[in-house]
Design a protein that fits this description.
The complex is a heterodimer of chains A (about 280) and B (about 290).
Chain A: H1 2-14, H2 16-29, E1 39-48, E2 51-61, E3 66-70, H3 77-85, E4 92-97, E5 100-101, E6 109-112, H4 124-128, H5 130-135, H6 140-152, H7 168-181, E7 186-190, H8 198-215, E8 218-223, H9 226-232, E9 235-240, E10 245-251, H10 266-281
Parallel strand pairs in A: 3-8, 3-9, 6-7, 7-8
Antiparallel strand pairs in A: 1-2, 1-4, 4-5, 9-10
Helix pairs in contact in A: 6-7, 9-10
Chain B: H1 2-12, H2 22-46, H3 58-71, H4 75-106, H5 108-123, H6 130-137, H7 141-152, H8 154-165, H9 169-177, H10 182-219, H11 225-234, H12 238-266, H13 272-287
Helix pairs in contact in B: 3-12, 4-5, 4-7, 4-8, 4-10, 4-11, 6-7, 7-10, 8-10, 10-11, 10-12, 11-12
The chains are: A alpha/beta (about 280), B mainly alpha (about 290).
Chain lengths: ~280, ~290
């Protein structure tokens, strides 16, 4: 509905997006087809001392797509995500976001963590407005937009509550609203619902796919839950541990929006089995 | 007495004969215990089981208190001096403590190279520095303020340092991902996160400042509760000494209450009732 418009109007306010549009056009004028990708990695490696955390990862992520990165603990999936976010530097290789090399945290990607990381001393709406506040003054338009975002995540009645008075699932909804308020078109989600119970998690996954479809963003979702990874994604990046390796990229053919009943179909379970097999053998079928 | 009164009201109004609440039962129990303790104490003193030079009777202490607080009004000047020394010492000591802790938290080399001296000063019994402080600062209230500040310094310092360096790593990453500037990370994340721990340090510091002021007065001073207390002890007026002690307990309670009130205001997000009140107010304001 109005959220796509909302994004557009709010972006006109700070002028940054207009600049970046110009930048994108300039980049697109160059003879590199690859720069149209939202994220592009070529032979990216990460070492922590002598430990190879991520080995030789190469991939591209198209704008508007939903990518899940799935793998067991220690497979380097979070490390890969944090490199894309610019929170940790890569050791070697090339990693581009919107056609420019990642050198540090940047304004055009937003990150959401397993913990809600809300500020206990700020109300829900003030938490959602934090990215705006860090950039400058909070206007009435920003407030209206924050209220819209709270509507989008279903928390409009809790604008003035404090995080401590919300359940874990609600706190992550606030974190999601704050992430959307960053106003980026790339969302990096690091096991955002990993600490929640199964029921809340399933419910929030359905909500998340609805919301990202509505705001039309590129999403990278890290999880260790295979079914969750497949349910949400257009493509699943399967990573195996020691050393962290991108073992396979699996296309998910199911049409969107997806209903929770998809989880029960044989096609879905065949895909789950296929990913499981990659973990067992290290190879795709 | 209290018990009788309660029974009377409940029997005269049989309809309201509900079970007494847990709270009122507890208050009654507290009063009973206090009455028994004071009664035994009084009896022990009156019967000569305990020498009144060692432990004067509660009634004697109360009479002395009345005498020096209400009749002679001797106490209030000294009360004010000690309160003043404690408060100024507290402000000076905790300001220096918090400032140094902020410097240590933000500037790693300072933290590293000052650590041995901090530990050294921490393990030294700081009360032992009191005569030195008096030698430096001379007579009057100034050395007592100095001793209060010296004793008060550590809890706010350590708590501030701990609070600032123990900020949630994920929250720091979140601020980093939002490209927050250094001063924004400090004012919007580190300082508020550390605030509950800092307040706890300030509460302890307040108590320490009072101790410092009185120790200073014991060693060398011409006014203050410590002086008054010594004067009574030398005159073998033990009920007077105990009356001063009682007044010091009140002073401690007063300072404690002030700190609790501040804590409730500043670190409101640790107090559910206060948070709910703010939420209610904001909701009401928004509807209007």
């Amino acid at each position: 509905m109005s959220l796509v418009q909302l994004r557009a109007t709010s972006h006109q306010g700070d002028g940054k997006v207009i600049q970046s549009q110009i930048a994108t056009e300039r980049v697109m004028a160059q003879p590199y087809a690859a720069t149209r990708q939202a994220i592009e990695a070529q032979q990216v490696e990460k070492r922590f001392g002598s430990v190879l955390a991520v080995e030789n990862a190469s991939f591209t992520i198209e704008p508007g797509s939903f990518i899940s990165i799935v793998g067991p603990s220690g497979c380097g999936k979070s490390t890969l995500l944090r490199m894309i976010a610019g929170l940790i530097p890569k050791t070697t290789g090339s990693l581009m976001v919107h056609g420019s090399e990642v050198t540090g945290p940047r304004g055009d990607v937003g990150v959401m963590f397993q913990k809600p990381t809300l500020l206990d001393w700020k109300t829900v709406i003030e938490n959602v407005l934090l990215p705006t506040k860090l950039k400058g003054r909070v206007t009435d338009a920003d407030r209206r937009r924050a209220v819209e975002l709270l509507h989008l995540v279903g928390l409009q009645d809790f604008a003035h509550a404090f995080p401590r008075h919300l359940s874990g699932g609600m706190q992550q909804r606030v974190a999601l609203a704050r992430l959307l308020n960053v106003g980026t078109d790339i969302l990096l989600l690091d096991e955002p619902f990993g600490a929640l119970d199964e029921f809340t998690r399933e419910h929030l996954n359905v909500e998340l796919s609805r919301i990202v479809a509505e705001v039309n963003t590129t999403s990278v979702f890290v999880t260790h839950n295979i079914a969750e990874a497949i349910f949400l994604a257009d493509k699943v990046f399967v990573m195996t541990p020691r050393p962290g390796r991108l073992a396979a990229i699996v296309d998910v053919p199911f049409e969107k929006p997806r209903d929770i009943s998809l989880l029960l179909t044989p096609e879905f379970n065949a895909l789950v089995a296929r990913v499981r097999n990659i973990f067992a053998t290290g190879k795709d079928l | 007495m209290t018990m009788d009164a309660t029974f009377e009201t409940s029997s005269s109004a049989p309809k309201a004969r509900a079970m007494p609440s847990v709270g009122s039962v507890r208050i009654i129990n507290h009063l009973l215990i206090l009455t028994v303790v004071l009664g035994v104490w009084e009896l022990a003193s009156r019967m000569g089981w305990v020498d009144s030079l060692i432990l004067p009777a509660p009634t004697a202490i109360a009479a002395s208190f009345w005498q020096i607080a209400v009749v002679d009004r001797l106490m209030w000047w000294h009360f004010g001096v000690t309160l003043y020394e404690s408060l100024v010492g507290f402000v000076v000591g905790s300001t220096i403590g918090i400032a140094l802790a902020i410097a240590a938290a933000l500037w790693e080399p300072f933290r590293r190279y000052s650590a041995p001296y901090i530990v050294g000063l921490q393990v030294t019994p700081r009360i032992a520095l009191a005569p030195i402080v008096i030698a430096w600062l001379g007579f009057g209230t100034l050395p007592n303020i100095g001793i209060a500040a010296l004793l008060c310094f550590f809890p706010p310092f350590l708590n501030t340092l701990t609070g600032l360096t123990a900020v949630d790593r994920d929250c720091l990453e979140m601020f980093r991902s939002l490209q927050a500037k250094k001063h924004q990370v400090f004012t919007q994340l580190m300082l508020p996160s550390a605030m509950p721990v800092i307040m706890a340090g300030l509460k302890t510091g307040m108590t320490m400042a009072l101790i410092g002021a009185i120790v200073g007065e014991f060693i060398s001073a011409s006014e203050g509760m410590g002086v008054l207390m010594q004067r009574f002890t030398f005159a073998l007026n033990m009920s007077g000494t105990f009356a001063v002690l009682l007044a010091l307990t009140f002073m401690g309670l007063l300072l404690f209450a002030i700190m609790e009130w501040l804590d409730n205001r500043i670190v409101f997000w640790r107090h559910d009732a206060r948070m709910l009140e703010i939420t209610r107010r904001l909701n009401a304001k928004n509807k209007a």
